[in-house]
Each structure stands twice: as structure tokens, then as C-alpha cells.
Amino acid sequence: MEFTSPAPGHDQGSEPRDGLRLFVFPHAGGSSLTYQDWPDRFPVGWQVRALDAPGHGPLLDAAPLTDGNALIGHFFDRLVPELSANGTPFAFFGHSMGALVAYELTRRLLAEGAPAPVWLGVSACGAPRGHTDEPTPPHPGELSDAELRRTLAALGGTPAQVLRTEELWQVFAPAIRADLTLLRTWRPAPPAAPLPVALSAFAGTRDAAALPARVASWAEHTEHFLGLHVFDGGHFYFQDGPDAAARLAGRVTADVRGALRSGRAAAGLR
Question: Between the CA atoms of 126, 39, 182 and 215, what dihedral angle is there, to the nearest 10 degrees?
């Protein structure tokens, strides 16, 4: 089930056939492994890549970062040479912590005069408020391993084998705790103006960590809001049921194509 707050003027006409690169930014403690089946869910000609932070996935041997600005710098340095050399349009999708990463990276690209995405998708995450009473996750040092495992199990998204196998937990726990530290301490500067980039927001009906009303606040952060799309499910709504990921992919595809058709991709195509 999907409930959508439609954006005015969203055209469902003929679809463009040009290629597109979709970069996906995982949640706190997550990696590209969560999204390994996504490339098959999108149109032929699209390149879908989930990007890992240091200490995650294939970069497991690298020290995880606990500073938000350093994390944005990592992705900026990694992507800008590729984006500058390849004129194919690209889009960002970020889930939970990955939504903040995708948003802040977009801001950095625009500030530096680098190519910018044609579309930004933010999922299961409220928009930054820019003041000090923003709710923060628990300090990772205050949670025992058992408490942290229970918290992650309630949210979903972490493989059960990692949570119940001590050897695996010891491998992945440092990156999870580093991400919690980053989220607790990260206070990006308030935006000077809404993004000139089309943006869609996504939420789960039963997500207590990111209520749909909170996710809807992203509308204030863009000049081109394409709507809040609310799916039946929890924090990892796209894993709730066999067809959940396909429904999300369909909505992402429609919104990216809508952004391309409307000409709002100018910043990414200059």
C-alpha cells in the first residue's frame, strides 16, 4: 500500500529513454549489501550504485568516520571526478542517515560549482531544523551491546545473523557506533536558500523514528517538491513484504523521470 501526497503538475506522459545514474546512500550502520538487488528494479539504461562509507561493506577495513563534514568530504572527493567527466544525468537517494548525507552532499556540490543531481530522494528521515533542540540518538557509549542490539532489532534493517552472532557483531559494531556518534554530533549549517533541485520524500506509516509528518518537512528545503510518498511499513518499509522494494523503485523511477521531463535538471546538465 502506498499513499502519496502528489505534487502539482506532475505529468505522467511519455517517458525519457536517456540513461541515468542513481547513487544510493545507506542508513547508519548499513552498507551497499542492503541494496544489492536494486539495479534489477530500475529501467534498462540506469546505473544504480549504493555507496559505502569508510568502515562499511567493501570498505570494512577502513576506519569509520565520526564527523559529518568528513563523511561529506569523502563522498565529494570520490564522486566529483566521475561526475565532472561523465555528462550522464544522476540522482541521489538516501535512507535514514543516508538522506542527510545525500542532502548535504547536494549542498556541497552546488556550493562548489560541481555537477548537481537532477533529483534528490530522502527517506525515513526528518529534515534538518537548524536549531539545538533537535532530537539526538542515544550516545553510543551509553548503550551496552545488548541494548544496542535490541534497538537495532526493533528498527529493522540489520541482518539478524549480525545481531545474534558474537563474531559478526564484533566486526560490524564499530561502524554502527561510529555512525551513531556522527548522527549525535552532526549539526550542518542552516541552508541559505531552498535547493534548486527536485526533491521527493518517503516515509513508512509505522516508522516511530521518522514520522511521516516529520519527513514532510523536507518540502521547505527545495524549490521543487515532488511530494511525500508514504508506504505501509516501518523504518525499513521497503523491506516489509515481497513487493515493497518494487513499489518504492516504481515511485522513485516516476519522480526522477518527472524531474527530467520538467526541465528541473538544469543544474545537473549545465
Answer: 0
Query: Are 65 and 53 in contact, with CB atoms under 8 Å apart?
Result: yes
Closest CA to 191 of 70, 98, 113, 108: 108
> Across the beta sheet with 119-123, what order do the strands follow?
2-6, 222-231, 195-204, 119-123, 90-95, 20-25, 46-50
Q: How crowded is residue 260: how many other Cβ atoms within 10 Å of its Cβ?
A: 21
**For residue range 236-270, what is the model confidence (pLDDT) as tens digits?**
999 988 899 999 999 999 999 999 988 644 434 44
Among 28, 24, 4, 92, CA closest to 235: 28
Domain borders along the chain are 2-134+190-269
Which of the four pLDDT bands, split at 50, 70 and 90, describes residue 178? confident
Q: How many angstroms separate the CA atoms of 160 and 169, rounded?
A: 10
- The answer to pTM > 0.90 is no
Nearest to 172 by CA among 70, 51, 33: 33
Fold of 2-134+190-269: Rossmann fold (3.40.50)
